[in-house]
Design the sequence.
């Protein structure tokens, strides 16, 4: 458990440092993301972004497992 918490903390620090460059990625604006705007309601569900992030994380974790 200690190693996991340390890795999560290091990951958060790395993401925080790289955030200015990560914001420029088109994640959240991919074709397939659902965005509905009505009179007083905005609904956003990043379906395609979730699939892409899931595939990338699955591949990275698969590499670490080997």
Sequence:
């Amino acid at each position: 458990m200690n190693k996991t918490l340390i890795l999560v903390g290091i990951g958060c620090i790395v993401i925080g440092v790289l955030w200015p460059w990560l914001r420029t990625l088109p994640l959240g604006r991919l074709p397939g993301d659902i965005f509905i705007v009505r009179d007083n309601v905005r609904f956003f569900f990043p379906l395609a972004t979730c699939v892409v992030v899931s595939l990338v994380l699955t591949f990275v974790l698969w590499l670490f497992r080997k």
